[in-house]
Amino acid sequence: MRTVLIIAIACLATLPACQRKDGVASLRLKDNSAAVALLQKVNTAARECWIKSKDKDFRKYALIPELDTRAGRPRILVVEKKTAQGLPQFVIEADGNPAKILAYGPLGQSSLSGRINSDIAHWASGGTGCNARA
């Protein structure tokens, strides 16, 4: 009982940090609309050029877009199909307005890195199609 009381007091003590001066609770959400829009373009192109085209370099991978986020950065995960719940092999994130892309992961140090970076830069700058090659 005493532990429950201590936890309850600790929880109540943190509530003022989430309240505005008028007493209404608030949570600041980041506007990621520019980043989401950019990643939607990259996701669409990557899905067409890497996955749906059955490109031999990307046969064993799948894309998992995580674009619907208001707390945190929207991102696209490149995962191995057979272990889709495992660690991503590559992450493409966007943030800011104007949006900037950050990409990282093991595929960034592989023989595909030049092509991946070239494709992403092409699509992020407004390019279309699957013609970007390293």
Structural notes for this entry:
- Strands 1-2-3-4 form a four-stranded antiparallel beta sheet, with helices on one face.
- 34% of the residues lie in helices and 17% in strands.
- The chain has helices at residues 2-14, 33-52, 113-124, and strands at 61-66, 75-80, 90-95, 100-104.
- The chain is of the alpha+beta class and 134 residues long.
- It has a domain at 33-124.
What would you call the quaternary organization? single chain
Number of strands: 4
Strand residues, percent: 15-25%
Helix/strand class: alpha+beta
State the distance separating the first and last CA atoms: 64 Å
Radius of gyration: 20 Å
Order of helices and strands: HHEEEEH
Keyword list:
134 residues; alpha+beta; 3 helices; 4 strands; 17% strand; globular; disordered N terminus
Concise account of the structure shown:
It contains three helices and four strands; from the N terminus they run ααββββα. With 134 residues, the protein is of the alpha+beta class. It has a domain at 33-124.
